[in-house]
């Protein structure tokens, strides 16, 4: 028994509700049903999204939204960002081990770095440099559509950081693959804990890239 305006709902009231539904025109009912069917088949399934963006990778809107379950108790993205650069803790101190292992496994096929210059020697500072997933490089560059500023936004860089003719550096077997701490020389005001740029691109850090271990080409 349910209550409506303080009074028990009777069987009579239920019959009135049912009878009111039956008064709807048949054409209207068919129209609503058609809309529901169209909507159902127009939305991609989770499996289809997983195949497109990478198996086992949940697609979310906005950088860092999937970090909700990545932090150990007592830590959050906001709490780490309040700590000044140079004093931030190691990612293993505040991120769950399974999250770190899963994140780094996505870089097994190699890494890519975008630079503002044509490198002729080592790439990146001695303390390490930021890179992203090599297998996603083509998609990222295509997404930028020839716009260097758009590429900078996706990589979490300041406008102008990549210059007019950026270069793509590919490394098949990088050394020192690790989760970024935010203490790296290249960590700017857009850095987010957890290994994702402010533009939503997965990133990690590797040791300084040595001459002879990479290939290079212009981005656009």
Distance between the termini: 69 Å
| Spatial arrangement of strands, main beta sheet | 6-4-3-5-7
- Fraction in helix: 25-40%
Strand/helix succession? EEHHHHHHEEHHEEE
Radius of gyration (CA) equals: 26 Å
Beta-strand percentage range: 5-15%
What distinguishing features does this structure have?
disordered N terminus; five-stranded antiparallel β-sheet; single chain; 220 residues
Model description:
- This protein is α+β, with helices and mostly antiparallel strands.
- It has one domain (65-218).
- The chain contains eight helices and seven strands, in the order E-E-H-H-H-H-H-H-E-E-H-H-E-E-E.
- The chain has helices at residues 11-22, 26-42, 46-53, 77-81, 91-94, 97-105, 137-144, 148-154; strands spanning 3-4, 7-8, 111-115, 129-133, 167-171, 203-206, 215-218.
- The strands form two sheets. Strands 6-4-3-5-7 form a five-stranded antiparallel sheet, with no helix packed on it. A two-stranded antiparallel sheet has the order 1-2.
- The longest helix has 17 residues, at 26-42.
- The chain is globular and about 45 Å long.
- Residues 1-21 and 36-64 have low confidence and may be disordered.
